[in-house]
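Example 4.3 (complexes with small molecules)
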Amino acid sequence: MANAPVLGIDQEQEQMILDGVDSFIERDVKPYVSELEDQDIYPEDIVEKMKEMGLFGATISTDYGGLGLPVTTYAKIIEKISGAWMSVSGIINSHLIMAAAVERHGTTEQKQSYLPRFATGELRGGVALTEPDAGTDLQAIRTVAEREGNQGYRVNGNKMWITNSIEGNCVALLAKTDPKAEPRHKGMSLFIAEKGPGFEVSRKLKKLGYKGIDTAELVFNDYHIEADKLIGGEEGLGLKQVLSGLELGRINVAARGVGIAQATLDESVKYSQMRKTFGKPICKHQAIQLKLADMATRVEAARLLTERAAEAYQKGERADMEAAIAKLFATEAAMENALDAMRVHGGYGYSKEFPIERMFRDAPLLLIGEGTNEILRTVISRQLIERNPI
Ligand SMILES: Cc1cc2nc3c(=O)[nH]c(=O)nc-3n(C[C@H](O)[C@H](O)[C@H](O)COP(=O)(O)OP(=O)(O)OC[C@H]3O[C@@H](n4cnc5c(N)ncnc54)[C@H](O)[C@@H]3O)c2cc1C
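Answer. The structure with flavin-adenine dinucleotide bound is encoded below.
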């Protein structure tokens, strides 16, 4: 069993990759997190290192210059990076969701033109779906891409909360090509939008956590986009293309949750042996022991659920409910562990001298992104009924 294949690569190869990621985290991430996070500085040097390691092409096929890693391995990488600093995982996560949209749904020309540049990180970015008045209800977006004969499209509208949109140079942009269509999704299309005249960053958004990484509001003001930038070359498929990427996105976010849940546990296990009260380390007090046990149990369960969803996805099996369950559980685990870790650390948990305070601010985003956990519960229960008709 020592070298059984891990869905595409063997265990030895996977271990080598993960060891490389561990060294990168220890050498290039951990020593700099505190300062970069505190001052909300974009981690340029870390990004350069990730380019060198090929991480911008982690899940892009080797045919297009990517590493072609299975999602199971990619989830482990994301878990490790998030345990050190969640923001760094976001720099590649939404970039790779954009890449997956092109790889799965793009024309041959689009794949050949974009994927090699995505893989090196020459073109970087994310996905621009959310608007000031539409997040969960994506069909209510108002950004319009109006056809201009054979010249392409003229895009007008605003996008909100777009990750990687200041430092990046490209987004997968969801817009209405037919605002009157019924059902509404038939009028929605997805474009590869590179920065240019009319594509403006109107403001960088200030956030509770998830610092360092850029999140912005975008304005498209008579932005011209050529017809060959329409993903798949056919109008009306945009929402479907976006939704098909959500399984992968949810596995990614679940892996981030596992990373934070594990890191907050590790910090707590360490601290509880160092801190003494009433003549003994606090890990000898039952109240602390109960918390550590609950935290460890959440981590194990979250990781297994995430692995199960990643394996189903990698094998091409149905994974919508599995990914939703993993995302729901692992992100709630991250939030609960962050709070428990703060209790274990007492006053020091609230201090910037320890990483718990940052993880406690980062974790809530996981409850919101890639489908809020409220919506995911409705997805799971809908699937339960669909899969178990009487
Ligand atoms: C830091 C950050 C980064 C982000 N990055 C990106 C990005 O890169 N690209 C992008 O496109 N978006 C991004 N987002 C946006 C994110 O995806 C949305 O915030 C999320 O989808 C929720 O949408 P909303 O904020 O409009 O909330 P709303 O949709 O207004 O929801 C508000 C509340 O109502 C609940 N709710 C809504 N509808 C229902 C329903 N039918 N049943 C039950 N409850 C419901 C929700 O669960 C939530 O609790 C980012 C957000 C943040 C905070």
